[in-house]
Design brief:
By secondary structure, the protein is of the alpha+beta class. 45% of the residues lie in helices and 26% in strands. The N terminus is likely disordered. Belongs to the adenylyl cyclase class-3 family.
C-alpha cells in the first residue's frame, strides 16, 4: 500500500480529513445545542465518536506520510549511492541523507583501516551540507567503541543525563546530547560505524530514527565498500599504467633490440630499437610470427622452448627486407611466469653490421700500419688538415713487372703482384712503418709518423735490406719467369702529414718534396738495389756498409741528387 501512495495522494487525504474534522465539529456543536427529537440517540453518539476519532486518524495519516517520505528518501538515496562509484560523492550523499532524515546537527562516517585496524573518519558533514574540518571531529569514543565491540546500534536522547554515558569525559567536555551510532556491516564483517549527534537539542532522535538508520547503514556499507574497491582498482590501474609507461620508456631507451614471443613464436612485445634493426614498424611486428622474419633463428627458439636453455652470443647474417645482409647477434632466454611455467622466449638482438664494417676497415688499416703504432695513436689528435713532420720515406718498385705481365694471364699477374707487394708490406709493418698506398707495382711507406721513432731512418733502411733478402729467398721457390726484384729508394726530410680530402673521403697521407725525392731515387734504383739520399745516409753512416756515393739526375729536379747504395748493416 505504501509503495502505491504518492505525495499528492497523502496531501489530498490530509486536507480532506481536516475538512471532515471541521465539519464534524460543527455538526457535533450544533447537535449539542439543538437536538431535534426526530434524530435518534445513536446518531448523536456516532457523531460524537467520529468527532473524537477523526483527529487520531489524521495523526495516523501524518505518521504514515512521514514514514513514506523516509522510505522514499532511502530508496532515492539507494539509487544514488549504488549508481556511483566515486567514493567522495557516495560519502557526501550518505551523510547528508542521514542528517536530513534524523534531524542531526552533525554526522560522521568512520571506516576501519585495512592495515592498522583502527577506525578513521572518512567524512564529517554538518546540517548545512558542509564538510567538517579535523578540529571539529569531537565525538564520543566511548559510544563508538561500544558499538564496534558489541556490534549493536546505540541511541541516547540526552547523553548528559544518560547514566551510561554522562560521566564520560568526551560527553561532558564536548557537551554532547542526542547521539545515534550504528555499525556498518559488509559480509558479516564490521567495517565501520555511522555516528550522528546534536549538541544543541536533546530528545531529537527516536527509536524510529534508529531503525531507519540501521536499515540504511546496511545499504550504505555495501555502496561505500564498492566505491572503496573501485577507488583501489583505479589506483592500481593508475600504477599499472605508470609502470607500463615507465617500462615503455625503458625499453625505448635501450639501444639493443628487445623482442618477446609466445610459445607459438608470435611477437608479443617489440621495442623501437628492434623495429629499427628489422626495418619494420612496431605495429607490423607485434602479432607476427618471428620465424617468418628470421627463419634462421627458428631452430634456436625451438631449443629454448623445448629445454628452457639460454642461448648467448648467437651471431647470424640474415638477409632482411630493404636492408640486405646484416650482421646480428642474439641472446635468447626462456620467459617464465611466477610459477616458473615457460611462457615464451625473450630475445635481445644487436645490429653488428656497422661494427663489422669498422672491424674490416681496422683490419685493412692494420695491413698498412703496424699494430704497435695503431695502439699508440691518439684519435683525438688526428684532425683534418696537415702537420709538418720529419719522416723517412721509402718507395719500392717491382722491376721487370711490365714485361712479365705481357707473358701471363691477368689472374696470374695479380697473384704474383699480391705476393710481392704483400711481402713488402709485411716487412715495412714489422719495422714499424706506415704503408701509405700501393701504386700499381710499387709501394709507398714512411717512418716516424704518426708515432715518433727516433731511429726512423735506420728502420727504413733495414726494411729495404730485409725486402731485398726476402725477395732473393722467394725467387728460389718460384719459376724463373716469375722471378722479380724490387728497386728501393729512401729519403729523409720534412713533409706535411695528415688527413687530406673531404668529409666524405679522406686519406691519411704525406705530401712534400721529401716524398717526391724518395720516389725519384727509387726510379733510378736497379733490381735488388737500395739507394738512399745523402741526408738519410748522414744519419746512419755508422750503421751501414755502402758501395759508393754518386749523383743522379732526378726527374723534376734542377740539381742532381746525391745518393748512396746500401749493401748491408754493419755487424
Amino acid at each position: 500500500m505504501i509503495s502505491s501512495l504518492t505525495t499528492s495522494t497523502l496531501v489530498s487525504l490530509d486536507a480532506q480529513l481536516a475538512a471532515l474534522i471541521a465539519l464534524f465539529n460543527e455538526v457535533h456543536s450544533y447537535l449539542s445545542v439543538h437536538r431535534p427529537a426526530f434524530i435518534p440517540d445513536r446518531v448523536y453518539q456516532a457523531v460524537g465518536e467520529m468527532a473524537k476519532e477523526l483527529p487520531e486518524l489524521r495523526k495516523q495519516v501524518n505518521a504514515l506520510e512521514g514514514e513514506w517520505r523516509n522510505l522514499r528518501a532511502l530508496a532515492q538515496v539507494g539509487q544514488v549511492v549504488n549508481s556511483s562509484l566515486e567514493l567522495d560523492q557516495v560519502l557526501q550523499v550518505v551523510m547528508d541523507t542521514i542528517i536530513r532524515l534524523t534531524g542531526a546537527e552533525r554526522g560522521f562516517l568512520m571506516m576501519r583501516n585495512a592495515r592498522s585496524g583502527e577506525l578513521e573518519v572518512l567524512i564529517g558533514r554538518n546540517w548545512e551540507r558542509e564538510n567538517l574540518s579535523r578540529s571539529e571531529f569531537a565525538v564520543s569514543r566511548t559510544i563508538i567503541n561500544r558499538v564496534v565491540k558489541e556490534g549493536q546500534p546505540i541511541i541516547t536522547t540526552d547523553a548528559q543525563e544518560d547514566p551510561r554515558f554522562h560521566t564520560q569525559d568526551s560527553v561532558v567536555a564536548h557537551n554532547l546530547r542526542a547521539i545515534l551510532c550504528v555499525p556498518l556491516w559488509v559480509k558479516q564483517e564490521l567495517v565501520g560505524v555511522i555516528y550522528a549527534d546534536n549538541r544543541v537539542r536533546s530528545g531529537v532522535f527516536t527509536r524510529r530514527h534508529l531503525e531507519l538508520l540501521t536499515g540504511f547503514a546496511n545499504q550504505a556499507a555495501v555502496a561505500i565498500e564498492n566505491a572503496r574497491l573501485f577507488a583501489s582498482v583505479r589506483q592500481t590501474l593508475k600504477q599499472v599504467t605508470e609502470l607500463k609507461t615507465l617500462m615503455d620508456n625503458v625499453l625505448a631507451s635501450i639501444p639493443s633490440g628487445v623482442i618477446t614471443v609466445d610459445p607459438d613464436k608470435r611477437i608479443l612485445l617489440c621495442n623501437r630499437a628492434a623495429a629499427e634493426i628489422l626495418r619494420q614498424p612496431i605495429s607490423a611486428l607485434v602479432g607476427t610470427n618471428l620465424s617468418a622474419i628470421l627463419p634462421a633463428l627458428d631452430e634456436h627458439m625451438n631449443q629454448v622452448l623445448r629445454f628452457g636453455h639460454t642461448v648467448m652470443g648467437l651471431e647470424m647474417s640474415p638477409d632482411l627486407k630493404e636492408k640486405g645482409r646484416v650482421a646480428l647477434r642474439f641472446n635468447l632466454s626462456p620467459l617464465r611466469n611466477e610459477q616458473r611455467i615457460l611462457q615464451g622466449v625473450a630475445i635481445v638482438v644487436e645490429d653488428l653490421t656497422e661494427q663489422r664494417r669498422l672491424e674490416a676497415q681496422q683490419r685493412l688499416f692494420e695491413r698498412m700500419v703496424s699494430p704497435a703504432i695503431i695502439e699508440q695513436i691518439d684519435t683525438e689528435e688526428i684532425k683534418p688538415g696537415g702537420q709538418k713532420r720529419e719522416i723517412t720515406t721509402l718507395f719500392a718498385d717491382i722491376r721487370g713487372f711490365t714485361s712479365y705481365g705481357e707473358m701471363v694471364s691477368p689472374e696470374e699477374l695479380v697473384q704474383v703482384l699480391n705476393r710481392y707487394l704483400g711481402l713488402a708490406a709485411e716487412i715495412i709493418l714489422a719495422e714499424g712503418g706506415t704503408v701509405d698506398k700501393f701504386l700499381g707495382d710499387a709501394v709507398m711507406a714512411w717512418f716516424n709518423a704518426p708515432v715518433p721513432q727516433p731511429d726512423h731512418t735506420l728502420r727504413a733502411v733495414r726494411a729495404g735490406l730485409r725486402l731485398k733478402e726476402a725477395v732473393e729467398r722467394l725467387n728460389q721457390e718460384i719459376p724463373v719467369a716469375a722471378k722479380l726484384s724490387f728497386g728501393v729508394g729512401i729519403h729523409t726530410g720534412e713533409a706535411i702529414l695528415g688527413l687530406i680530402g673531404t668529409e666524405k673521403r679522406m686519406d691519411y697521407t704525406a705530401i712534400g718534396d721529401c716524398v717526391n725525392t724518395a720516389r725519384r731515387i727509387q726510379e733510378n734504383a736497379s733490381a735488388g738495389q737500395v739507394l738512399i739520399s745523402r741526408s738519410a745516409y748522414q744519419r746512419i753512416a755508422d750503421a751501414v756498409e755502402v758501395s759508393g756515393v754518386f749523383p743522379i739526375q732526378a726527374y723534376g729536379k734542377r740539381e742532381p741528387v746525391v745518393v748512396v747504395e746500401v749493401l748491408k748493416l754493419k755487424s
